[in-house]
Amino acid sequence: MKNKPLLTGEKRIIKVGDVTFGEGKPVLIAGPCSVESREQVIQTALELKEVGFHVLRGGVFKPRTSPFDFQGLGLKGLEYLREAGDKAGVPIITEVMDEHNIEAMAELADILQIGSRNMYNYPLLKSVGKVKKPILLKRGMSATIKEWIMAAEYIAQYGNVNIILCERGIRSFDTYTRNTLDLAAVPIMKKETGLPVIVDPSHGTGIKELMMPMSKAALACGADGLMLEVHHDPENALCDGPQSLTPKQFAELKSHL
Amino acid sequence: MKNKPLLTGEKRIIKVGDVTFGEGKPVLIAGPCSVESREQVIQTALELKEVGFHVLRGGVFKPRTSPFDFQGLGLKGLEYLREAGDKAGVPIITEVMDEHNIEAMAELADILQIGSRNMYNYPLLKSVGKVKKPILLKRGMSATIKEWIMAAEYIAQYGNVNIILCERGIRSFDTYTRNTLDLAAVPIMKKETGLPVIVDPSHGTGIKELMMPMSKAALACGADGLMLEVHHDPENALCDGPQSLTPKQFAELKSHL
Amino acid sequence: MKNKPLLTGEKRIIKVGDVTFGEGKPVLIAGPCSVESREQVIQTALELKEVGFHVLRGGVFKPRTSPFDFQGLGLKGLEYLREAGDKAGVPIITEVMDEHNIEAMAELADILQIGSRNMYNYPLLKSVGKVKKPILLKRGMSATIKEWIMAAEYIAQYGNVNIILCERGIRSFDTYTRNTLDLAAVPIMKKETGLPVIVDPSHGTGIKELMMPMSKAALACGADGLMLEVHHDPENALCDGPQSLTPKQFAELKSHL
Amino acid sequence: MKNKPLLTGEKRIIKVGDVTFGEGKPVLIAGPCSVESREQVIQTALELKEVGFHVLRGGVFKPRTSPFDFQGLGLKGLEYLREAGDKAGVPIITEVMDEHNIEAMAELADILQIGSRNMYNYPLLKSVGKVKKPILLKRGMSATIKEWIMAAEYIAQYGNVNIILCERGIRSFDTYTRNTLDLAAVPIMKKETGLPVIVDPSHGTGIKELMMPMSKAALACGADGLMLEVHHDPENALCDGPQSLTPKQFAELKSHL
Hints:
TIM Barrel; eight-stranded parallel β-sheet; two-stranded antiparallel ribbon; 9 helices
């Protein structure tokens, strides 16, 4: 703990292997909501490799609203994700929910994600502050700009300034979209913190047809990358199928950016 | 009144003099929040003319939260706006709040605006439905997508399908920005109604520094135009000074689109 | 227009015939969402008379989200409501949406209501400010406390301080209830304006089973009355059937207050 | 994990020492936001004892938005709270934020609280599901009714059905109050889950003057208890001073319930 804010707007660039966040070229993170099996994640990764992408995502511990929903494959799933990332030649990112697993996960994953539901989980933020891997910090679903900045500051204060921010939509009164994508947060957070900011239009809208226009808009207002749910077979996905692109749809989207 | 919806997604193009909404080329609407004097609006219009713009905006009846705030110059102000538009060679747009004035205002103005506070004012919507001028319908500050579509449908049902929609930010829990600009509404409303959709980043964010990134983002996701507050002397504006661009700043913004 | 606020917290009592708002005894306003026919409103009024109530409500101009929904019987409906009120021996209240009708409506009605969708309709507020009948001003569905105070101030500034406020729920992210009933607004608005404040749990929750607990809660925190939708045959009501009580259910509720 | 919901509306009564939640008599939980020192918490507890109260509250691990704010005294603070509760002859409740501490805290505390920021922290919910002490589960600051029910179900599924729910206000667009107290949630959650539901007007409004009317309203709509911040010296409190009552103000409030 320092006694003064560390994220004061000074621009930071985050390197993960060959991938760089914040240097102008948008980073494309893609992959399934959940790792469902070894075959599924490897197949998706290889199809994405053909299209061209930069980071493979996949959840292995899933924060599900209902205890009766699929909770993820756990560390075994992370091994599959690692293998898939290696086969595709890209770094991997996965969400941590639990202090107990951080060390084990940090060994296998290249970036650790703090999900929307854990943005206010200060013990978890402190814990990833002590990790030597970059952290992707999603905005809480109804977090104010100020609260989001302070959540990043928690991580920084505990020793880790390699933070990538991710706008993923906020909760509003309208139910047409899953969330309300708050793109103004992109230039605001870049200016306030100096950190790279990416956008997740999959959770931000929940509607496949909006991936293209909102991805373009995100990059147009300065986003340093995109995080997109891609599944080789969305209709049979265990979660978030309706908002998942196929690798082919991802290719189409990529060609228009 | 027809007995079936008229706005079913079929694409419509709206022509106002030489200006066309919905044909690919973004329309730039600019001008002061309020017409404050003949000199002010003419000066702003001439400075904008030098930069290049398409429609002059200016409020003459102002829906102010407080009865103690400046309420606008009324029809006299509209004459000034007309004169300024003519000098700049562009059509003009102004807000109607009151059924009584619609006819008089429709004679002088080229586009009539329904402001955010009146999106649910159904008698007013019906009245402008009978007018032979295009209507710009702003989204209510906490209107759902469905309510906004239905508000447009009111206008259409009463005889006027020349409607331009305008996303201007919705009310959320965060107070960092004046409103939360909901850019996903642009592709959604275009698809649902077929009408042109423009974006007002001035009210949508309330922060001058966000005009540039959010204007770019709006166009990137398909907006048919932008509505921007421009004042020749923002520091002395009677309303919305802090979010108003100078003509010079508008020129800078325009050069980056 | 005075140049200073008139609603500064000084307590006001509003008399309408034998009914008094703001004097400790809660006023019960009841009746159907819409006047649907002479028979319907008279039957409901007579059944309510047996139970005991204070003011008869009924909409004749309805602000409906969709232009295809029932828009009300207009002035003919108001005559029916007047007749029903007279037969029940109680004053009547109905919503005005349109400046054109205010005079005609003020002749027949005892209280004029400004609905939630018109709280920001400043020309309408100014117009009812000139009327010699009490005004019931509902809170806009996402109006801040400050905006609501200012809306009442508009009415007062134009000459009418006989204003009754009505909390009817605000829009939030949750869809379990129709709106989120903000009961803290009751003591706040009483203190800030000095005006009587009533509560509408029908729109505030949209769920029949919540009428009883929320009515009790409203009175417990100081509400000066309640406005409840009561229909003699909710299943066949033209609007708001699911949230309407039968006169018998109203009697049950009344007995528990 | 059972394969079916356990919280299906069957009424449950929770006993903690001599205190019973859900049996008709409202339970008063009072105490400071944070345990600041041994003296402070003992003095507050003894003053509350004179007034009469049922459970002593006090935070020792504080989820603060800013890492620079006071984070609590930790387990040492819990020892002070235990001593204060014993001196006052009442059970104690404190918030757990971290799986690591649950066992140690469950040894000293009588009720463990899951705070608003952790309602979506599923590993924590699972962990307290395995504890043999009652859990007070606060509603997330923008949790829907359904999400709140599911959060309680997580705890129940992992073995602990002794859950008390606490409505503490939700986030809305208005900033007049700290949060919007959603009292309709009280009868809704009682019916949906069968669990006792209490109300926290301190966080729910953030305004001292609203404690009295909102406490009355909470009990009127069926709340099984109240949770109130009480500090012997609010002006010098390390957190939440402005919304804290003095023991004398608490006595005044209690006398009116």
